Amino acid sequence: MDIVTLGLLASLLAGLATGFGALPILITKKVSERLLDVMLGFSAGVMLAATSFSLIIPALEIGGVFVSIFGLTLGALTVHLIDRFIPHAHLISGFEGPSTRLSRVWLFIIAMIIHNFPEGIAVGVSFGIGDSSSGMAVALAIGLQNMPEGLAVAMPLIREKYSRVRALWYATLTGLVEPVGGLLGVILVSASHAFLPWGLSFAAGAMLFVVSDEMIPESHRKEFAREATLGLISGFILMMFLDTIFG
Question: Using CA atoms, how far apart are residues 141 and 69, in angstroms rounded to an integer?
Fold first, then answer.
């Protein structure tokens, strides 16, 4: 299987994990805040480990420190600008971006789409390293952290009186932007090896921004910050272990 197809399929499966994570809403309409915060913390830990070991370290090895710094900065700045100029809403910070008539539910869905697109890019560019195991490690990391996010998307929809099936569909939809990012990432690095360190560091910067700006604050939104922190550490350790196995 060629690298483009492999990168596309891996990012698609990682994106579909969002819908898989939302499946519990078919049997329950309520998930404890403690569990949700632990799961979000776990996701943040997985993302941090994947960013560190599967994106930043290869970028440094291939392109050097200055390319990695510029690429990382560009990735973080890009997500910041998207956050500023595209209307969306977060659980904690609320509405962001220009004024709009869209409902809060749709603004929340848009926020998750913004979040998921750079994750797809991360999966795609990681296959450009030349070792499919690196790409699989990143895809696994993204899939693991997408599952709690799927539940986090679906639960507010249930509270807004959406049907369970419709909430599950919208949660799945937010993850389907990932194969678009994955295809873009793998095509760029396949076209020229010179794009690889830039793509890796760009994806790392975008993911670091999302973890710090969204995931950690949202996992600390209630009184379960300590539990969320333990979840983050657990996710980091698990991903570090998996990266070692795949590496």
Answer: 23
Q: In which element (H, E) is residue 95 found?
A: strand 94-96
Place of tokens 């699989």: 136
Number of domains in the chain: 1
Cα–Cα distance list, 131 to 24, 137, 166, 195, 217 (Å): 35, 10, 39, 16, 34
Can you read off the two tokens belonging to residue 215? 């995931």
For the purposes of burial, counting CB atoms within 10 Å of the CB of 214, is it exposed (0-12), middle (13-18) or buried (19 or more)?
buried
Backbone torsions φ then ψ of 88, nearest 5 degrees: -165, 175
Residue 93's pLDDT is what? 59
CA distance 214 to 208: 10
Region of residue 97 (phi > 0: left; psi between -120 and 50: alpha; otherwise: beta) = left
Give the span between the Cα atoms of 139 and 13, in whole angstroms: 8
Q: How many residues does the chain have?
A: 247
Give pTM, 2 decimals. Answer: 0.87
Residue 92 has pLDDT above 60, yes or no: no
Return the pLDDT at 247. 62
- pLDDT tens track for 200-211: 999 999 999 989
Please state, in angstroms and rounded to a whole number, the distance separating the CA atoms of residues 205 and 74. 7
Tokens of 153: 């998307």
Task: Please provide the average confidence, as pLDDT, over all residues in the chain.
Answer: 86
Query: Which range of residues forms the domain containing residue 146?
Result: 3-246
